[in-house]
Write a structure and sequence with these properties.
single chain, alpha+beta, two-stranded antiparallel ribbon, 21% helix, globular
């Protein structure tokens, strides 16, 4: 909401100008530029703007995507999608689809939803909890502390496993709710609890 400041006309004038009629002291309204806030998470989830997340009452646009970020996101989503087909586990792999955590409205870079959790309608604007398997790809603007905090938020909201990808360092962290496991560039990355049996090598 845009705030307003009401300033009486002639507020700074001298005593001679104070003798003018009250009609000349009509207040003038000037808008004050402030970040617009979403009125509620519920209203945001009904019709969310593209590429926007809801964070602490503010609309936050997902930015900072680089070539490496986009490449890692594409490779990972393709790998997960191919495996869920070949393994017969079903479900769907999604990119930047909105979900509701216990605190915010988030758009994970890559997510997997199991067949059991897929809505019967086959369509939804925002998933009612965190997806079972989620991956976030770090961009140059992201801080490690913020990404790990976001991962914890997912795990506290129904997510069973989170992957954090750092393209510049070529590292992947995986957490299935107990502890973080680190995978270097030359190591096989395994799922811990979702998409059982998935193993990836040379993701970079």
């Amino acid at each position: 909401m845009t705030a307003t400041i009401i300033i009486p006309k002639n507020a700074d004038n001298n005593s001679e100008q104070d003798s003018h009629s009250k009609s000349e002291n009509t207040p003038e309204i000037y808008p004050e530029s402030q970040p617009e806030k979403v009125i509620s998470l519920e209203k945001f989830l009904v019709k969310p703007p593209d590429r926007m997340e809801w964070v602490d009452g503010n609309l936050v646009e997902k930015t900072g995507m680089t070539f490496k970020h986009g490449l890692a996101q594409a490779k990972l989503s393709t790998s997960w999608r191919n495996y869920k087909h070949s393994s017969g586990q079903g479900g769907e792999v999604l990119t930047e689809v909105l979900c509701r955590t216990s605190k915010q409205g988030r758009r994970p870079d890559v997510a997997y939803i199991t067949p059991e959790l897929l809505p019967q309608s086959g369509n939804f604007t925002a998933f009612s909890q965190s997806f079972p398997l989620i991956a976030e790809v770090a961009s140059p603007e992201d801080s490690g502390e913020e990404l790990f905090a976001k991962a914890q938020e997912y795990l506290e909201s129904g997510c069973l496993e989170v992957w954090l990808l750092f393209p510049e360092a070529r590292l992947i962290f995986v957490n299935a709710g107990q502890r973080w496991r680190l995978f270097n560039a030359d190591e096989v990355v395994n799922t811990q609890s979702v998409l059982a049996g998935l193993a990836l090598l040379n993701l970079w």
